[in-house]
């Protein structure tokens, strides 16, 4: 009998570029929320969301911070929007070594959107006056895995290690670990 998997809620921010007018309210509230102490200052460089702007063409694209990338990517594609060319990096959500976006201005540490942890909804969504940012939630299976499935996963992992390093090395490693405990 399979064990029940718990459902977890996945939150994402849906961005409607057509509704964004570049007011940058999302940047301001995000930077204020993440200031130390909260709401004590307003520095857009600390914001986990950025507005890519092309005001002459009335184009504004909100991009929020994603995972940290240890190395810069190989992608250097170009996008043409309304006749203007954009580098792929402009729309990337990662903090990486090749650019300064989504890095803490004082320490250089990478920033990542935390959906304003502790708040009912991300403040950028709540404060967007034009509903260009909308919180979407969906349920996914996650949580506890069936003990039989865990055992199968362990066996697959051990088989892969044995294929790569040999059974004797695995036995030696297990023996050393056992002695430590």
Q: Count the E strands.
A: 6
Question: What shape does the CA trace take?
Answer: elongated
What's the total helix number?
4
The helix/strand series, from N terminus to C terminus, equals EHEEEEHEHH
CA(first)-CA(last) distance = 34 Å
User: What percent strand?
Assistant: 15-25%
What structural category do the secondary elements indicate? alpha+beta
Q: Major sheet, described briefly?
A: 2 strands, antiparallel
Account of the 3D structure:
26% of the residues lie in helices and 22% in strands. By secondary structure, the chain is an alpha+beta fold. The strands form three sheets. A two-stranded antiparallel sheet has the order 1-6. A two-stranded antiparallel sheet has the order 2-3. Strand 2 (49-54) and strand 3 (59-64) form a beta hairpin. Helix 3 packs across helix 4 (167-180). It is elongated and about 65 Å long. The mean pLDDT is 83.
């Amino acid at each position: 009998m399979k064990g029940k998997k718990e459902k977890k809620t996945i939150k994402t921010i849906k961005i409607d570029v057509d509704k964004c007018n570049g007011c940058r309210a999302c940047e301001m509230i995000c930077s204020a929320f993440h200031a130390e102490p909260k709401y004590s200052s307003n520095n857009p460089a600390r914001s986990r969301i950025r507005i890519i702007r092309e005001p002459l063409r009335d184009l504004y694209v909100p991009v929020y911070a994603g995972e940290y990338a240890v190395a810069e990517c190989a992608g250097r594609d170009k996008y043409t929007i309304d006749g203007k060319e954009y580098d792929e990096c402009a729309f990337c959500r990662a903090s990486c070594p090749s650019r300064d976006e989504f890095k803490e201005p004082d320490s250089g540490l990478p920033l990542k959107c935390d959906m304003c942890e502790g708040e009912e909804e991300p403040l950028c969504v709540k404060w967007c006056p034009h509903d260009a940012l909308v919180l979407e939630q969906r349920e996914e299976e996650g949580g506890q895995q069936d003990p039989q499935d865990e055992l199968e996963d362990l066996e697959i992992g051990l088989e892969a290690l044995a294929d790569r390093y040999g059974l004797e090395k695995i036995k030696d490693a297990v023996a050393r670990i056992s002695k430590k405990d």
